[in-house]
Amino acid sequence: MQTTVILFFINPHSGSVRTPWHALITEFFSGRSVDVHCVLLEKDTLPNQITEQINIHSPNLVVAVGGDGTIKLIATALLSGTIPLGIIPAGSANGLAYELGIPSDPTEAMQLLLTGKPITIHGITIQNEICLHLADIGLNAWAMKKFNRGNVRGWWGYGWASLQSLYYSRMHQISLQIDGQSMQQKAAMIVLANGTAYRTGAIINPEGSLLDHHFEVVVMKKISLVETLKMLFTHQPFNPDKLVVYKAQQVHIRCKKRIPFQIDGEYRGKVKNIDAKIVTNAISILAP
Questions:
Q1: Is 211 exposed, middle or buried (0-12, 13-18, 19+ CB in 10 A)?
Q2: Is 142 helix (H, G, I), strand (E, B) or coil?
Q3: Annotation: CATH topology of 129-279
Q4: Closest to 188 measured CA to CA, from 273, 100, 259, 288
Q5: What CATH number should be reported for the domain whose range is 4-115?
Q6: 129, 201, 220, 270: least surrounded by Cβ within 10 Å?
């Protein structure tokens, strides 16, 4: 029987709890026909360094142990390749893992690496970066900025940052060009959505899918408690006067002023211009 080679990239800085991932992984795969290699990521690790490790170990499977930012980093090195990506959720917010139904329990997530089936999802290139789940400008990006600068990690830290963002929310004058159609819009937030929901459970894009050949542009035209409750607790249609969803292959966003911007949970500063387009068959990911 041929030995399977699995290469784990572990982000030791992810999440609010420090887990001995190397020991857990080694123990779980002990006695199995699996050759395990673990690489600890530094905060400034670049995609080409991931590629170097992949070339050294020639794995059958590459696994990201971390949150959405870690997954994004590893996925960048695997784009349009033949090696599938596995995920062990270990971040403060594991939105893509939640979207795919990957269990948060470490043992169950490792078991899935042996039993899961690869599915091929699309992505979005935004400012020459890949987005696999959700990116946005405005309200939520401002919350990510506060969260990343805060001392409290995990759900408490993100929840506090989100409350602050609601208090300090403001409207922005934005020009949109979606697949050649132009419009002017005032918005508190615009989401470029590959997936359907934030890890908090808030459903921002109920008609979305990782498996189709388009993404959605979600425009929050007004801050609304009713619409927020719909996102959290129901699948009811949104009020089109407050929130509207457009399907897109390509979008250009122009802002009158610089606005906070985040991709897959990673704050990217303030921007005035965004260019995004679909990437079909971007990457294969193990899922239940």
A1: exposed
A2: helix
A3: Tumour Suppressor Smad4 (2.60.200)
A4: 259
A5: 3.40.50.10330
A6: 201
